[in-house]
Write a structure and sequence with these properties.
about 160 residues, alpha+beta, 5 helices, about 70% helix
Length: about 160
């Protein structure tokens, strides 16, 4: 059996060993980077979901109020773009903000999430589809409260302006 030093010069052997060491370090570095990214996205998305849970809670309470036919409802839009639903009966008045739904983190990073972690992305996709549906429900509810033609069909729920 011939020695490795006779077949390949020692510098070539050293270069090959250094290349493999570098590749192993790169592998672990990329894996750690991927874990950090996924962890950061999870934190950001959890914060976004916490905001959305309040929006869902508020929307449910508003729907409950809309089902009370003894109340008269109107939408009040603030200068800052915030929407409030005012419900009244005689002297009793209840106001509540109609919170928006949030999906900006998901919208901005959807491609990165799909590439980094397919399983995580698949779970998120269903959640954000539900958020998109909730956005449509919120918009439709506000439109129904504001549109005079729709108010006519839904009387006595909505206040005539």
């Amino acid at each position: 059996m011939t020695e490795l030093g006779k077949v390949l010069p020692i510098t070539v052997v050293a270069a090959i060993i250094l290349f493999f060491i570098k590749e192993v370090f790169e592998f672990f570095k990329k894996r750690a980077e991927k874990k950090r990214k996924v962890s950061a996205y999870k934190i950001l998305l959890a914060e976004e979901m916490a905001k959305n849970s309040w929006s869902i809670f508020g929307l449910r309470r508003i729907v409950e109020r809309l089902q009370d036919h003894s109340l008269v409802h109107e939408v009040i839009r603030g200068a800052d773009g915030a929407c409030h639903l005012k419900s009244s009966r005689d002297e009793e008045v209840v106001k509540g903000i109609v919170l928006p739904f949030h999906s900006s983190i998901f919208d901005k990073h959807i491609v990165d999430l799909a590439v980094i972690d397919k399983k995580f992305f698949t779970q998120l996709r269903d959640t954000y589809q539900a958020i998109a549906d909730a956005k449509v429900s919120r918009s439709t509810m506000l439109e129904m409260c504001e549109d005079q033609n729709l108010k006519f069909f839904l009387t006595p729920i909505f206040k005539e302006s």
